[in-house]
Amino acid sequence: EAGVAQSPRYKIIEKRQSVAFWCNPISGHATLYWYQQILGQGPKLLIQFQNNGVVDDSQLPKDRFSAERLKGVDSTLKIQPAKLEDSAVYLCASSLRRGEFTDTQYFGPGTRLTVL
Amino acid sequence: EDKVVQSPLSLVVHEGDTVTLNCSYEVTNFRSLLWYKQEKKAPTFLFMLTSSGIEKKSGRLSSILDKKELFSILNITATQTGDSAVYLCARGGDDMRFGAGTRLTVKP
Fold this sequence. Notes:
heterodimer, A: mainly beta, 48% strand, globular, B: mainly beta, 11 strands
C-alpha cells in the first residue's frame, strides 16, 4: 500500500513570495489533515478535510493560508504572502474514517519550508 | 484553549532503563488518545486508546488511558538507543490536537 505522498520535499523562498504544497493521501482515506510543525514543537493542525469538506480550520491563518481538496482526494496548501515565521515543516496526514480507525493518522514525509 | 500537555519535555536515560511518559488532555471533543514516535521525519503511529484502563502493548512499549483523570501514559521498558526520538501524544476528535512532545535520549 502506497503511503501519503507530498511534494516538494524542500522549498526555500523569500518573504512575501507565494508557495504551494501538494499532498496525495492513502487511497481510500476520507480524512486529510495539514499540520505545521515548527522546530521543537508538536504538529499544529491547520485544516482537516472530510472528503472535500472542511471539518476544522480554526487554527488556519486565513489571511495568508488557503487549502483545497477539490475532488476529495489530493489537496494543496498555499501560503500567500509568506512570512519569516512560516518557516516550518508542513505535514500532511490521512486517516480512514471508519470505526476504531477514524483517528489513526498516517503521515507523509513533510515539506520543509524556509522563508528568508 | 484546548490543550494537550506532555511531561517531561525531555528525558535522558541509559540503555536498559524503564521510562514513563505522561500526557494530559482536555475533554473537549475527545474521541481517542494517540501516541506517535517521531525521529527525524514524520510521526509514526504507536497506539490509539479509547477506553479507560485497558493497556495496549507492542513489544517493550505499552500505554494506558485514564478518562476520569484525563491522562495517558506511555511506558517503555528495557530501553534501547533506537528508542531515542520525540514521543508525541494527540487528542483525537473532529479537531486533532498534539502535545509538544517528550524528547527521549537513550545513552549506551
